[in-house]
Amino acid sequence: MNKKWWHDKVAYQIYPKSFYDSNGDGIGDIPGIISKLDYLQDLGVDILWLSPCYQSPLADQGYDISDYYSIDPRFGTMEDMDRLIAEAKKRDMVVLMDLVVNHCSDEHEWFRKACEDPDGTYGQYFYLRDKKEGELPTNWRSYFGGPVWDDLPGTSKQYLHVFHKKQPDLNWENPKLREEVYQNMNWWLEKGLGGFRIDAIINIKKALPLHSYEPDREDGLCSIHAMLEEATGIGEFLSEMRDRTFRKHDAFSVGEVFNEKPGELPDFIGENGYFSSMFDFNATIFGHSEKGWYDASPITPDDYKNCCFSSQAKVGEIGFLSNIIENHDGPRGVSRYIPEGDCCNKSKKMLAALSFLLRGIPFIYQGQELGMENLPVVSIDEVDDISARNEYQVALEAGLSPEEAIKAISAHSRDNARTPMQWSDEANAGFTTGTPWLPVNPNYTAINAAAQTEDADSVYSFYKELIALRKNPAYKETIVYGALEPVWRERHNLMAYYRKGAPTLLVIGNYQKEPQEVTLPTAYKNVLLNNEKELAENNGTITLQGYQVLVLEMEDSYYE
Ligand code: GLC
Ligand code: CA
């Protein structure tokens, strides 16, 4: 395997709107991020991925871009952005922007020009179809609910949007559009970006000609997945993008790839893949239902383990997945993956170690390093997330009572991860001196960065140790490149794996509140991490306390 500069890095996702507000308007901003770079450097992260901060009407919180060449004034200026890139560089960090090119905003100049002249150049940047009374061009259901077709203002046509109606899909079949995208990407890369996180990319390839599929709900519409399953040939677009942009700049690229087809992993992230890496969403999507959030099933510790191990088996040494427990699109990892009632510092540290030491590139989402938790929804009026608002309606239509519907969306709402970062126990968690755009989780008095950075026993300090361990020259080669081999795979509520190499490490997590015993296959040499003060061992048999996690360096003899 060819070594790449990103293989041994640790990445951190910033959701700019909720990270740190420097000017008291209640909205996080780029100067705010700059002022927290020392915090991030101290934690040990190398790559910063910024969710979108381009000019945008914020219909989908910035994932609807109206100008790819400018920064939204709410987030700052282009000078701020340049300063962020430079200040990050001084600290040996690189910045990734979010590349949102399946769609733009309906307020983008391209879309306005398409409305003025749908048969002209810009009409071909989108998917437009003649409007027919009482009939839609296709029956696809948008990800955010309702049909994917809306009237193109001032014309007799309709346009396609697989997400919100303010996010018209760009027509990737048009070479001119693709040129525009590559030009913009190179413009950013020339500024000194480290690369991109690539949004919703699987959607850029539509099955042509566009047509309807079997309806899958009462609304007569069908999930976009029906179309995606049929679409082939995305590789032509993605390899062109790679050759024209990333490759020339040795840039890092991480794809938000759902629904790749069986056997396609090497094409995406193999030696000559389209991307450097892609997120592992196996555990994220576990239990999801085509019917909607209300019909989702919970994930148990054994399910979580199986999701991680099956992804690891699938990727093997093909390439590098990017491992997450959360991002801006769902609940907090600790609230999702730790059984109800058991969320505490100890279990949060266990989950941290189990996910962080998997083979791949670890991504930490802002506040994850503090063990930030979900903020339960009380009333639908408080919900900002357009996806959660739609799912609330879906649940009501399925016959749930309003209380049940609230409960159903509460566990999944994207607002859970979007509440402001908890910096201190001061007003508004120290996030802003104004009124935060989204309520702060009231648990900030107990969970905040100021307290945790001072406390050697905090979740934050544990993450810092994990990062330091990954970077420790004695273990780095194993943690970055060593093969992963599950141990005691069938044991209930126990997740354990080897990371093989010289030395071999054994990671063991007791994923329950009751103690449990394990008998080590071979002797260990060192305890590299332990979220308990003690290690109860008797002749090779360890009694793990509830939610205890251990990282052991095994005797060399194991490998002889
Ligand atoms: C991705 C983003 C999500 C956004 C969607 C549309 O899934 O992560 O936040 O709503 O794409 O751009
Ligand atoms: Ca601000």
How would you briefly describe this protein structure?
With 560 residues, the chain is an alpha/beta fold.
Please explain how this structure is put together.
The chain has helices spanning 30-35, 37-43, 78-90, 109-116, 175-190, 224-230, 234-249, 265-269, 301-315, 333-337, 345-356, 386-397, 402-410, 415-418, 449-454, 459-471, 476-481; strands at 11-14, 47-50, 54-55, 67-71, 94-99, 128-130, 140-141, 149-151, 157-160, 195-198, 222-223, 252-255, 277-279, 320-323, 361-365, 484-487, 494-499, 505-510, 516-519, 524-530, 536-538, 541-544, 549-554. The protein is globular. It has 560 residues and is of the alpha/beta class. 49% of the residues are buried. The chain is built from 17 helices and 23 strands. Bound molecules: alpha-D-glucopyranose and calcium ion. Residues 60, 63, 100, 163, 199-200, 256, 328-329 line the site of alpha-D-glucopyranose (GLC).
